[in-house]
């Protein structure tokens, strides 16, 4: 039974047909990497999965929750589907620990003591246990992103969406973040990542989704797909990315 | 014939002036607390376009910001009795200040809310927080911190503007000054000292507000 | 004696004329004085700067009503019989000059240091730098907030009613007493100010948007 299923997903921005019928199925514990050019719709697709983007047609099913164009219980969905952003989006007026504690307290009505314990655990999990009382502007980009991951994890999501989470980082900080993600994958977290990190996708991913002009163009095991792309577009894309790096 | 400055008659009544100053401060505190409350409410309503309240607040803000405080005061004190609403000098003064500051702070705080980066809202949404939860925990404090200098300025402006409340016999500082100079005929000296008193109050209030902003809004560092 | 609506409006319009005239005089004279004050405020001479700063802080930190009284009673000390109009014009001019100088100072300071350095390297004197490079750029930025402040000037004229100047508010007060219709009269007075101020407010906002428009 798939944990997350997308059926015939369409999205329009005005007249712009951004997602042209996407079908996708993701099992529990799978690590999925979504790649593609800018404008291919990959980020939009990711953002429909937690309701940050509305859908024009089609159905999204996550662990028994249904999302369609008409109906969506976002509060319930978002407790099952967490997200980490490219720009981290930590809350600057709260300490690191308070950032992680906030949602459990407010949404799940967790007590302050329990939330604090949870936050300490999550921060330790991403290797930032000692930074509980620091403020976001005192941390490096890589540290901030790890806090963002801890913040999302504190809600015990079933699926974690990662929207280009290393794209805004200086190169030397990317490793520490990917290290955390690698660990999460090993622990069995279901991950859906829009990423440009091809090497990471190949090493850690279970499934690679190549998006092109609003459709899923190719799907498969990353190692096979990279070695032998079935479509010309993917071959071009891999070639272009290889040239750029 | 040179004019002989004589501050003694004024200083003799210093206690009256100080009492008036205290009254002005009381007016300001009440006006500020209630005015800011309206400002937060109005800012949310306007920022989120909660109709029909947003339109109502819109009209309210434009009316207040494009008419003089004195006229608003006269309208409340002299005009409302025609509708059966008869207020005391104190009540009318406070109401006028609250309505005035409420309008200005609605706009100021709204600007603060709009300046919060969209990413903050998305992060809060991704954490399953409702719009109101996001506002209370993620938006309000940073928005107020951002516009605190502008808000502080406006509070001082309203405090200085309260001087005209003396015209409806509210017994604040200007009223005390009017009273004193009408007895001792030392108008210039009286108003000079009163002006200095206002200046001191303005400086003091500005410092206090800066300190409060630092303590409450900028986070505990 | 029965008053018609037109009677009231007709009289208010007279007051409105004086409000308009006072606003214009204060704005223009205050603008000229403000420019001089600005030059003092950004001067290289620390005493000039200090004096200008003191002046500005004084006028920004005290009620307009007090400033008006000081001018009114202060001039009387010299034995000069000053009319309400004269005192009003002088006080509002001083008030306006302080605020405009401060607004314009903000605009001048927002001009990047690079402009000063470039023009300085071209051997221009400080006054020439201001005249040919800095102020022209600062003026563009200053238009929106200056128009915005004009609204404050118009509203400020209302306070002059207290020393008896027969502008809109004073006229309204007299009419309210004569007609026993304070609600209507002060309502119309508010409308009068609104008609003057709202277009100015809208213009200021429009200009602000045009300046910092879509990036």
Automatic annotation (TrEMBL), chain A:
List keywords of the entry alphabetically. Amino-acid transport, ATP-binding, Cell inner membrane, Cell membrane, Membrane, Nucleotide-binding, Transport
- Name the chain's protein: Glutamine transport ATP-binding protein GlnQ
What is its subcellular localisation? Cell inner membrane
Task: Name the source's superkingdom.
Answer: Bacteria
Q: Recall the GO molecular function terms of this protein's record.
A: ABC-type amino acid transporter activity; ATP binding; ATP hydrolysis activity
**PANTHER family per the UniProt record, alphabetical:** AMINO ACID IMPORT ATP-BINDING PROTEIN, GLUTAMATE_ASPARTATE IMPORT ATP-BINDING PROTEIN GLTL
Query: Which family does the record claim for this protein?
Result: Belongs to the ABC transporter superfamily.
From TrEMBL, chain C:
Name a single GO biological process.
amino acid transport
CDD domains (alphabetical): TM_PBP2
Which Pfam families does its entry note? Answer: BPD_transp_1 (PF00528)
| Compartments in which it is found | Cell inner membrane; Cell membrane
Keywords attached to this entry: Amino-acid transport, Cell membrane, Membrane, Transmembrane, Transmembrane helix, Transport
Topology in the lipid bilayer is annotated as: Multi-pass membrane protein
> Residue ranges of the ABC transmembrane type-1 domain?
16-204
Main subcellular location: membrane
| GO function terms (MF aspect) | transmembrane transporter activity
Where are its TM segments located?
20-42, 54-78, 84-104, 141-163, 183-202
The answer to whether keyword Iron-sulfur applies is: no
Query: What is one term from the GO cellular component aspect held by the record?
Result: ATP-binding cassette (ABC) transporter complex
User: What InterPro entries does this protein map onto?
Assistant: AA_ABC_transptr_permease_3TM, ArtM/GltK/GlnP/TcyL/YhdX-like, MetI-like, MetI-like_sf
Xref: PANTHER family: BLR6398 PROTEIN, MEMBRANE COMPONENT OF AMINO ACID ABC TRANSPORTER
Q: Which NCBIfam families match?
A: HEQRo_perm_3TM (TIGR01726)
The family assignment reads: Belongs to the binding-protein-dependent transport system permease family. HisMQ subfamily.
The protein, known as: L-cystine transport system permease protein YecS
Q: Which organism is it from?
A: Pseudomonas fluorescens
Q: What is the lineage of its organism?
A: Bacteria, Pseudomonadati, Pseudomonadota, Gammaproteobacteria, Pseudomonadales
Q: Which gene encodes it?
A: yecS_1
């Amino acid at each position: 039974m798939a944990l997350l299923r997308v059926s015939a997903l369409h999205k329009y921005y005005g007249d712009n047909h951004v997602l042209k019928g996407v079908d996708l199925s993701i099992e529990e514990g799978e690590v999925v990497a979504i790649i593609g050019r800018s404008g291919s719709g990959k980020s939009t697709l990711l953002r429909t999965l937690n309701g940050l983007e509305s859908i024009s047609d089609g159905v999204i099913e996550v662990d028994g929750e249904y999302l369609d164009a008409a109906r969506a219980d976002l509060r319930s969905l978002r407790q099952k589907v967490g997200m980490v952003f490219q720009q981290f989006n930590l809350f600057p007026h709260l300490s690191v620990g308070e950032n992680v504690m906030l949602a459990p307290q407010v949404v799940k009505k967790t007590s302050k003591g329990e939330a604090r314990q949870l936050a300490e655990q999550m921060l330790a999990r991403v290797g930032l246990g000692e930074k509980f009382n620091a403020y976001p502007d005192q941390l490096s980009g890589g540290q901030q992103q790890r806090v963002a991951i801890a913040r999302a994890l504190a809600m015990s999501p079933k699926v974690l969406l990662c929207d280009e989470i290393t794209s805004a980082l200086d190169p030397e900080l990317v490793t520490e973040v990917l290290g955390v993600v690698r660990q999460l994958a090993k622990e069995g977290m279901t991950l859906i990542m829009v990423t440009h990190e091809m090497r990471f996708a190949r090493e850690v991913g279970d499934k690679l989704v190549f998006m092109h002009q609003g459709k899923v163009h190719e799907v498969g095991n990353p190692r096979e797909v990279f070695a032998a792309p079935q479509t010309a577009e993917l071959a071009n894309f891999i070639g272009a990315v290889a040239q750029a790096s | 014939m040179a004019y002989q400055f004589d501050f003694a008659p004024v200083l003799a009544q210093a206690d009256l002036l100080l009492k008036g100053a205290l009254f002005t401060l009381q007016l300001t505190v009440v006006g500020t607390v209630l005015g800011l409350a309206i400002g937060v409410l109005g800012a949310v309503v306007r920022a989120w376009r909660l109709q029909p309240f947003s339109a109502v607040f819109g009209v309210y803000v434009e009316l207040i910001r494009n008419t003089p405080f004195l006229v608003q005061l006269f309208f409340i004190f002299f005009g409302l009795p025609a509708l059966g609403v008869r207020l005391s000098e104190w009540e009318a003064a406070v109401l006028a200040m609250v309505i005035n500051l409420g309008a200005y702070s609605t706009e100021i705080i709204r600007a603060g809310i709009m300046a919060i980066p969209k990413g903050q809202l998305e992060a809060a949404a991704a954490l399953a927080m409702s719009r109101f939860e996001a506002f209370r925990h993620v938006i309000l404090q940073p928005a107020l911190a951002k516009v605190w200098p502008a808000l502080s300025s406006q509070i001082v402006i309203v405090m200085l503007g309260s001087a005209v409340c003396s015209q409806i016999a509210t017994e604040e500082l200007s009223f005390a000054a009017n009273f004193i100079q009408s007895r001792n005929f030392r108008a210039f000296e009286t108003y000079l000292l009163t002006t200095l008193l206002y200046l001191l109050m303005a400086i003091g209030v500005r410092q206090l507000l800066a300190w409060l902003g630092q303590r409450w809004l900028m986070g505990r560092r | 004696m029965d008053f018609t609506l037109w009677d009231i409006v007709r009289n208010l319009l007279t007051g409105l004329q004086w409000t308009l005239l006072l606003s214009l005089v204060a704005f223009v004279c205050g603008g000229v004085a403000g420019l001089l004050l600005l030059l003092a405020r950004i001067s290289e001479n620390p005493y000039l700067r200090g004096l200008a700063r003191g002046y500005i802080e004084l006028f920004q930190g005290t009620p307009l009503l007090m400033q008006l009284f000081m001018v009114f009673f202060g001039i009387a000390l010299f034995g000069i019989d000053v009319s309400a109009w004269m005192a009003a014009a002088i006080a509002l001019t001083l008030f306006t000059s302080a605020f405009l100088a401060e607004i314009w100072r903000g605009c001048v300071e927002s001009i990047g240091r690079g402009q000063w350095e470039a023009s300085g390297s071209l051997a221009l004197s400080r006054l020439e730098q201001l005249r040919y490079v800095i102020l022209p750029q600062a003026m563009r930025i200053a238009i929106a907030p200056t128009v915005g402040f004009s609204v404050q000037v118009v509203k400020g004229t209302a306070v002059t009613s207290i020393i008896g100047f027969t502008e809109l508010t004073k006229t309204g007060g007299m009419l309210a007493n004569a007609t026993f219709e304070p609600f209507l009269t002060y309502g119309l007075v508010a409308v009068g100010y609104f008609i003057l101020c709202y277009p100015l407010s809208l213009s200021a906002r429009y200009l602000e948007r045009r300046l910092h428009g879509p990036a």
